[in-house]
Amino acid sequence: MKHLTDIKNLNKIQIEALLIKAQSLNKAESEINRKILKHKTIVNLFFENSTRTLVSFEIAAKKLGADVINVNLEHSSTKKGESLKDTLLTLQAMGVDAFVVRHPENNIFATIKKWIDPKVALINAGDGNNQHPTQALLDIYTIFQHKNNIKDLKISIIGDIKHSRVANSLIDILNILGNHNIHLYGPKQLLPIERKNSTISQSMDQAIKDSDVIVMLRIQKERMQAQNIPDLENYNTNFGLNSKTLTQAATDCIILHPGPINRGVEIQSELADNHPSVILEQVTNGVLIRQAVLATLL
Ligand code: CP
After folding, report:
1. Atom of ligand 1 nearest to the CA of 132
2. Is the CB of 283 inside a 6 Å radius of any atom of ligand 1?
3. 258 lines ligand 1 (CB under 6 A)
4. Exposure string over 212-235, b if 16+ CB within 10 A, otherwise e
5. How far is the CA of 135 from the centre of ligand 1 (A)?
6. Which residues have a Cβ under 8 Å from the Cβ of 254 and sit 6 or more positions away?
7. Which end of the chain is more exposed for a tag (fewer CB within 10 A), N or C?
């Protein structure tokens, strides 16, 4: 495995190996981990905003002893009109071992792969509404910390699924691991066109009923035209998770959210902060998963 651009490129064995790697890196001495990527240079190139993914890739790389460069695109020559290709080739010429890229264009990695040296690892940190493979891995890692038998779990994904690379990658990874018990719910205009082995629920209660894992998603306003953005109060009434709707779920259910959260819109604030929310565990696991990905690819 040299690149991670789409979770669908991995098979069950490769996914399990990454989860085991994350576990073993968590247990190992930090001094030993710091030698793994010594003398490797990793460049983070984010053309869309990020807190969790960008910072966790940086922490992950540093925990493995790599040198990390976060390119400040606001002050880069892209602002003078330099193309993506020239930017990548310029950075590559300085001696780069891996690029971690977030970009608004779907499937941009098929093009990037043609430009860069095949020896340079390429990691997708999110492309448009297409893929977010390390998010899928950290979501699954978090679910495995609480649940056995992934195949049998009822997984509910609720919110703006149409614009969500998180939902896309999560459905893909669940399918690879043999779970086809995925239930989607959201406003009609925010449901995906392609169903990918999942069921569309007709109500919030139906989506949540007996659910083992609830994944709440924010409305991705940045990918919508202003007139299509739902009224937030109305949205919260019909699609928001609160302690009342949660009573329908399995008693030991867990709540995930990739972040950033819109408190009081898709999730009640107290629910986000307390059991059974595992939202901050997802963030912690993001560092481990990104360590595992970097260590494996490099
Ligand atoms: N989950 C996620 O991708 O968050 P950021 O946009 O903050 O990286």
Report:
1. 3
2. no
3. yes
4. bbbbbbbbbeeebeeeeebeeeeb
5. 8
6. 142, 143, 146, 147, 212, 213, 214, 276, 277, 278
7. N
Higher pLDDT, 2 or 197: 2
If you average pLDDT over residues 18-39, what whole number do you get? Answer: 97
pLDDT one-digit tens code per residue, 124-169: 999 999 999 999 999 999 999 999 999 999 999 999 999 999 999 9
CA–CA–CA angle 189, 50, 231 (5° rounding): 30
pLDDT for 100: 98
User: Looking at ligand 1, which residue's alpha carbon is closest to its atom 1?
Assistant: 258
Tokens representing 28? 């190992």
Question: Once rounded to an integer, what is the mean pLDDT over residues 266-274?
Answer: 97
Ligand 1 contacts CB of residue 48 (under 6 A): no
**Residue 227 pLDDT class (50, 70, 90 cuts):** confident
259 lines ligand 1 (CB under 6 A): yes
